[in-house]
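Residues determine shape. Take a concrete instance:
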Amino acid sequence: MTMKKLFLIFVLSTGIANAQWVPDREEYEVLNEGNFFTTAPDLNTALATALSTLEYNNAKMHTLNVNRKDIDAPLFNHFHRDTQPGFVYIVYVARTKTDYVIWFRYLPEDNYEFEEEYLIIEYDSKVNNPLASDL
């Protein structure tokens, strides 16, 4: 096998392996592939961390809704990629008693509730994904 063919196989397999969220810093606590979190001491640091990781993962930055006035959940967003049908990419920042938690989740398309100290964040697949009407 030539070196070009080996390189092409490596590039293609790398794209497949990185289909989930990938952490861009060591501070993230990884639960399993594509699902990880970290904390930040204040809102601005939490948002900067989340936005940096989104950029690292080539997320569509123009679709973000960041509300710096909402101290409980200033960021909650989800993405679908045509290359990953049946899965949802979820990201949120939420306030805790002592700091802010930053979550990245890659999950099968379904309904979810994420319970944090001051709120419950709901993801409804039928509302948030028009292609999931059969779920």
